[in-house]
Amino acid sequence: MAVKTKSAFVAIVGRPSCGKSTFLNAVCGGKVAIVSSVPQTTRNAIRGIVTRDNAQLVFVDTPGIHDSEKKLNQKLKEIALEQLKDADFILYIVDAAREPGKEEAYIVKQLVQYQPKVIAVINKIDHSRADTIRTRNFLAEYIPNVQVYEISALEVKGVNELLVDIMQRAPECPLYYPEDVYTDQEPVFRIAEIIREKIFRNLREEIPHAVFVEYEQHHFQKDGTLVYSGNIVVERESQKGIVIGAAGKMIQRIREESEKELALIFPYAVKLSLQVRVEPNWKKNDKILAILIQ
Ligand SMILES: Nc1nc2c(ncn2[C@@H]2O[C@H](COP(=O)(O)OP(=O)(O)OP(=O)(O)O)[C@@H](O)[C@H]2O)c(=O)[nH]1
Ligand SMILES: [Mg+2]
Q: How far is the CA of 158 from the centre of ligand 2 (A)?
């Protein structure tokens, strides 16, 4: 007799920097999505897959929802909201360390229509400024009767209970992915993301959102090393100098930190060849945004 399996799609949504990607990495037990303290780090719907005991959850991390007229923000918001309709569950992550305010109210209003499948997850309960009562009061006012969990994605506390609970509630259905797959991201996408994370982390003040990583080509050397060539694209000439740094030190650091982390992710070494290119106003360029944000 065929084994009965359960599977579900779980969208992870919330305001920028509430900890969605940290949560995804915590449930997957490894790095699937990049993380930084800069809001709107995530620019794509990123899948992380957890399979155990004949149950599979396909988590979909999304860009933080920020209501703004800017083209880039609009695109990011679209990507996030698109995931809601088809998801079996929606994990609405709320940052306990921040006053909910208008931005949070805007997001929760998008979710009310999906209420039966929304689960509220209060994150950052480890934070010195966490105020879970304030967050619970906010939820009670805007989305009454929603089920609420409290977790620390950073310290991986409360995460397993939530995972087990969703798995139990998942509908009976075949597995979407083979059991050993934990993400569906292409290697060249993951490489570009890791490079972008290192840029965000090293230059969080100087290059806020002006950067993307453009894939050029890759090949495998005889010894199995993957050689990746790409461009770090910025908006202005002055930013190019910042990314390169004095005597090329900054771009060298970005490359070395990325290569070190990529060595942990892939079963082969990755060598990066990075150039910096200026593309004025790329954030308003529909063609570039269409390639970048999907
Ligand atoms: N103290 C604490 N910090 C956390 C926790 N979860 C995430 N963070 C921090 O919050 C910041 C943002 O985390 P991300 O996981 O990138 O947040 P995100 O919601 O994916 O952000 P965007 O992709 O920009 O929307 C990082 O500095 C994380 O280390 C937590 O449980 N506790
Ligand atoms: Mg993120």
A: 19
* Dist CA 36 CA 209 (whole Å): 12
pLDDT value for 149 = 98
Cβ of 44 less than 6 Å from ligand 1:
no
Is 153's C-beta closer than 6 angstroms to any atom of ligand 1? yes
Asked if residues 197 and 34 have their Cβ atoms less than 8 Å apart, the reply is yes
The label of the residue with tokens 């698109």 reads 82
The domains located in the chain, with CATH, are 6-169 (3.40.50.300), 187-292 (3.30.300.20)
136 CB neighbour count, 10 Å cutoff: 16
CB 27 within 8 A of CB 165: no
Structure confidence by residue, pLDDT tens digits, 265-285? 999 999 999 999 999 999 999
Q: Whole-model pTM?
A: 0.96
Residues in the 5 Å CB sphere of ion ligand 2 = 20-21, 41-42
Instruction: Write the CA distances from 209 to 14, 72, 103, 283, integer angstroms.
Output: 19, 10, 20, 9
Higher per-residue pLDDT: 18 or 3 = 18
